[in-house]
Amino acid sequence: MQRAQKAERIQAILAAHFPQPPIPLQHQDAFTLLCAVVLSAQCTDERVNLVTPALFARAATPQQMAALPVAEVHGLIRSCGLAPQKAKALVGLAQQLCGEHGGAVPRDLAALETLPGVGHKTASVVMAQAFGEPTFPVDTHIHRLLWRWGLSDGSSVERTERDGKRVFPRERWNTLHLQIIYFGRAFCPALGHVVAQCPVCSWAMSTARQRLEAQRRARPATGKRS
């Protein structure tokens, strides 16, 4: 099957399972979404959604966040992974928004990427979900699934993003980003994945990739986990 044909079939399956995927992070506007996405690094969406109500009750605007001591923010987000770094980033990005952008989240990918704690994926999520700009943010689910489905070679997140943008229509990028995440959680996990039971991998994942994935899992872990 040609890659374009495979992508079309995958889109149909994703749309059937998740026709209107919701944004998983609870937020009120572009700023609270930005904060939630920063908090979601190495942390589940469920945990972030437990933390943000108290955080946003204390600081729901860049001006309010910029005025908080980092230690107070840390106390509010303590249960999130990497809380000390994230607390510093939240206060820092709020101060930068106030100092350089009039207290507003810029509708510009490059400007977002200059904010503390904001990388390309975080900036892309904000552009897509807050402003509706077509982007294709790649998280671990999307990186894993596009490799399994033979739509990218898995060499890097950057390559996966380029391949995803190339094979899927631009007007579908934002919805597909969410659909693939939900599909990965429901049907295509990193561990315990049963290829024959997956609505996509059962026909799209090659035998060679199945063998390679099995070999990777069988290798003994080396070094300390971060």
User: What class would the helix/strand composition place it in?
Assistant: mainly alpha
Tell me the strand percentage band: under 5%
Please tell me how large the radius of gyration is: 19 Å
Helical content, roughly? 55-70%
Annotated CATH homologous superfamily of the largest domain: Helix-hairpin-Helix base-excision DNA repair enzymes (C-terminal)
CATH architecture verdict of the largest domain = Orthogonal Bundle
Q: Could you state the order of secondary-structure elements as H and E?
A: HHHHHHHHHHHHH
Low-confidence stretches: none
Q: Count the strands?
A: 0
Q: What is the averaged pLDDT score?
A: 95
Give the end-to-end Cα distance, rounded to a whole number of Å: 39 Å
CATH C-level class of the largest domain is Mainly Alpha
CATH fold-level topology of the largest domain = Endonuclease Iii, domain 2
Count of the separate structural domains: 2
Broad shape: elongated
Please give the largest β-sheet: none
Count of helical regions? 13
Task: Kindly describe this structure.
The protein has helices spanning 3-17, 30-39, 45-58, 62-66, 70-76, 83-100, 109-113, 120-129, 140-148, 157-167, 173-187, 201-204, 207-218. The protein has 226 residues and is an all-alpha fold. The termini are far apart. The mean pLDDT is 95.
Characteristic key phrases:
Endonuclease III, domain 1; 226 residues; single chain; Endonuclease Iii, domain 2; 2 domains; mainly alpha
Summarize the SSE layout with pairings.
Blueprint: H1 3-17, H2 30-39, H3 45-58, H4 62-66, H5 70-76, H6 83-100, H7 109-113, H8 120-129, H9 140-148, H10 157-167, H11 173-187, H12 201-204, H13 207-218
Helix pairs in contact: 1-11, 2-8, 5-6, 9-10
